[in-house]
Amino acid sequence: MLVIYLSYCYFCLSYISEMKYDYVKLNPSEQIGPHSQAAVLPGFEPVVAGIIGMQDSLEFHGASKAALARLLLQMENESQAERTASVLRILSLISRERDVSVSGRFRKAETAVEKIRKMEIYVTCNCRRHLTLEDAARHAGMSRTRFCSFWRHETGETFMTFVTRQRLKTACHLLLTRPGMHVSEICYESGFSDIPHFNRTFRRFLGLSPTEYRTNREPR
């Protein structure tokens, strides 16, 4: 199988000759810069029109498959200038080829809002257990450092502060809906690891102790 990623073909050429192929796939990318190519190459506008908007992975068949594979293999031994010409030939071939089928759908990258929402759901479902930044970063698909920076930039607080607030919400809910549940039980059920820390954190965020919170909100 020979997989073609046009935006990276310059960097993957050394691997092409080692591949066997039954079909050719293409993942078009805006990194190719076809608009800029059309601006400097008269007559390239129809080619651009044929490939702009392609976002799915395409499987080529028959003669087009062989032609694309041949051009890519040929590029392995070409100079930089010759490779540029070959890329243009490949784009031209793709723009007019109709013997293709969709082999995969383009998945749009998550927006910052979507990532935040995803992590909010993750914390809501897991705040009662021991959570670490490494766990969260792994779930978000980022490094620990990048995740911390991303979360603070998007929310204005640290991720662990958010986790603490979610745990306190759980604690407040239990304090009001489980009158027979002891404060120490609520502490652990909410995800806190020890009672003194729970009491200090509760007072720091809400201005009163868990017992006072429960008492002040009990029906009179």
Can you list the strand order of the major beta sheet? 1-2-3-4
For the sheet with most strands, the description reads:
4 strands, mixed
Work out the radius of gyration: 28 Å
Q: Strand content of the residues, in percent?
A: 5-15%
Large-scale geometry: rod-shaped
Tell me the quaternary state.
Answer: single chain
Q: Count the helices. How many?
A: 12
Structural class: alpha+beta
The helical percent reads 55-70%
N- to C-terminal separation?
74 Å
The H-and-E topology, N to C, reads as EHEHHEHHEHHHHHHH
**In total, how many beta strands?**
4
Poorly predicted residue ranges: 1-40
Whole-number mean pLDDT? 77
Structure summary:
This protein is an alpha+beta fold.
What does this structure look like?
It is a single chain. 61% of the residues lie in helices and 7% in strands. The chain is α+β, with helices and mostly antiparallel strands. It has a four-stranded mixed β-sheet, with helices on one face. The protein is rod-shaped, with a radius of gyration of 28 Å. The N and C termini lie far apart (74 Å).
